[in-house]
Amino acid sequence: MTVQRRGPLLVEGPVEVELEDGTTVSSDRFRVALCTCRRSRRYPWCDTSHRRKG
Fold first, then answer.
1. 54 residues of the chain, pLDDT tens digit each
2. 18: Cβ contacts below 8 Å, ≥ 6 apart
3. 24: exposed, middle or buried (Cβ count in 10 Å: 0-12, 13-18, 19+)
4. pTM higher than 0.70 for the full model?
5. Which of 7, 9, 30, 27 lies closest to 17 in space, CA to CA?
6. What is d(CA 6, CA 15) in angstroms, rounded to the nearest whole number?
7. Minimal CA–CA distance to 31: which of 45, 47, 12?
8. Distance from C-alpha of 32 to C-alpha of 10, rounded to nearest angstrom
9. Cα-atom radius of gyration of the chain, to the nearest Å?
10. Among 19, 22, 26, 48, fewest CB within 10 Å belongs to which?
11. Distance between CA atoms of 21 and 33, rounded to whole angstroms?
């Protein structure tokens, strides 16, 4: 896992993430970006929405 300042968490895949409501999402990509700002429309996956201000 790689932590980026003001950015997503980069995780070597494949990964499985359990969300707050108990559902599980997975990705078989070799690296995924997990959103830490909750601005992503594809949460928990980062879509770079953190770059936009406002």
1. 888 887 889 999 899 999 999 999 999 999 999 998 888 999 999 998 777 665
2. 24
3. exposed
4. yes
5. 27
6. 22
7. 12
8. 6
9. 11
10. 22
11. 20
